[in-house]
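New here. Invent one.

***
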Amino acid sequence: MTIRKRRSSQALFVVCMLLLGVSGCVFWHNFSTNFNTLYLAEWHLDAYEAQQKAIVPPNANGAVALLNHRWFDEEFAMRQRSIKEGDPISIVPSFSQSLSATKEITNVHLDSAIILGSKILADKNPSKYVEDALLVVGKAQFYKNDFTGAQRKFLELLYKFPQTKHMAEVEVFLTRATILNHHLDTATAELDHAIAVTAQTNDKLAMSGLHRAKAELIYAMNHDSLAAIASELHQAEDGLEGEQLARLAYEEGAVYYMNADWPEAERAFKTTFDNAKDEYLTGEAHIAHALALRESGDLAGARTELQAVIGRAKFGGSHGPARFELAYTEELIARRDVGNNLKSSEFQDVQHPALRAEYFMLDTIYKNSSALILSRSKFRQAEMFREMGYYDSAAKLAAGLIGTKDFSTPAMNSYVSDQASSLASFSRWKNELEHIDSLEAGINHTAPMPVSKPGGQIHNAAAANHLKALQEALGARWNPGRPTPLTGDDSLRVQEIEKRMKDKADPLGGKFTITDTSHFLDSIHFLAATAHYQLGRAYETFGEISQARSEYIASMDLPGANLSASDTAKGAHFAQTLYAWLTLEHREKNERVKDSLLHELLTHYGQTIYAEQARNIYIGIDRNSPGELAYKKAYQDLRDKGIDAAKPDFLQIVATYSQDDVAPRSLYAIGERYEELVRYDSALLYYRRIQREYPFSSYAMSLRPRLADASNPGMAHAPAPTIDPLLTPQNGQMPPDNSNQVPGNPNLLQRGNGQPRQRPNAPQVPPPAPPPGVGQPPPQPEPPPDGLPPPPQPMLPGTPPPHK
């Protein structure tokens, strides 16, 4: 019995040991599998992040290259310019890390991390590694730009593990993912919760990441909240030290600089060069600090600091920008000394030679190494020459900057290119004005009095002819340095040559004569008015508003102007000048002057495209004006009674309101209705009248390609506003069959009752719905209010007319 019990106990022990071994193997298998899987997933994620750090530095401004230098003064100038225009440019968010690690989204490490992490998440028996796996998969999806998937994983992690050990890191990535998904409310709620929770742990490193994410969130919600962004970046510096502190302080200083908070910008940049280990970053911080000093008015301090940067070899990567900024600082000091009057003798005789030497040194040093420095140097020299009054020299220097891409931002490139183009135009029209003045003075110019030359010699036209006759008569014996004895034959020959020259000379004694003086004066006066307009546009580009106004006034002061005359080139010029002038006053907030100019434009030049553009922008069409009411009645008669009944009313509108938009619109309505009735000769009559009497109206603009096509057989047909689009050749198709043309007008296809025939093998399409005929209501869609047909869209010169 005892032996049997002992055997039973041994068997039971063996069974227990076997069961324990089996369960231990399963536990060990699960443990080792999940642990190894998570380890490999984290290894792949770390490998990807290490690769990205090698590609993208933590702060892009730390790259040791001139191309990556940040030109704060250019960014700030363009931002201030855009704020004045009412459309602020957002700052460069270099402090944001939302996309800093997503340069390479197709990567085997990211795919491996997602596959391995998903394997742990798919296990039916959840383990303690799920928390880490969710973080790994979420980060990998974020790096692959799958922000929706990343947001889902991070939210799942926070839901399953409310007190997760990865709280701060998860919230930072979740905030960036929700920002990129434009779920800003979710990002705000999650980030505020994370900051409140992390504040209790006193984890300064985690709080730094959260505050930096908060700065990114503020930028995404309102990119103009620069003070709030800078405040969050400043709080993010708490707990950091060394290089991390220096880089973040540099970003804080950049935001304060763009916000024009110079004391805070100086403090932040000083923090950078006090803590930075990277010599390039230190040099960049010194330059930025000098620019902040310069903007605050401390030009001497800025000059001293820039000289210190140039004097230290370890800041060699920053020497190029520092040399340019030093030269520009010297220019600002010189401008301050002369009260910004560059036309003064003190500046031109004393200051400018030294500044020219500074910029020449820049051109010499970087001639073969940096187009960025050369472009900036040429631009500053061109600006100085312009303000000194040397427009030809300025235009010559700036010619190479038209279309430049060498400046820091697209806005700055556009600004410099516009300045360069305006300089070229300014120089050209300035010379044209001088030439016009000399021509006008020469019309009534008499023969000049003899002019005394050095040495007491008298030089006039007769003496010049005698000298030429002597040279021709003596030939090889001619010696200007020593008188040659003349024989009798020589004297006779000289007299014959002088007589021949006198016979060929101007019979009016050298006076400047023109057959039709009045027409010539009218032409040069109009050219002078055009030159004044172009100078005004250039002055606008230069920011010299008072000079621009003066040029616009001079452009309007054209002799022989008649405001009551029909639309001519002069009228279009006046309308263009008024439009430019009132736009300038509107931008300068001078509403009373703008309203006065607008009234002048609409009263005297209401039929031009400039008046139409101004009307659409500033006031809209007055439907209750006398002209509009008369047009409304005439158009209603056209719909109800036909063209014969409405035509006299339309023509009366043209005679009564000749300077209003209803005049060309009435002619256009008549021509359009005749065209719909297949009376093309009558339609062309009124279309030609629009081109003759209102050549600068939008209706004439829309008719130009059609009538040009009609006068050039064989050219492609340009559709009129009312031509059905089915008749217009589509891309990749043959032009429409022109066999059904109007006799006498080979390029006007018949329409209305005369349907164009279909091409062979072309898809059969139903005929277009007839246009609103006489005595029937218009088809859908309904016409504009008050029964006005939609006129062509307003266009400025040089733009193609709209086609319906």
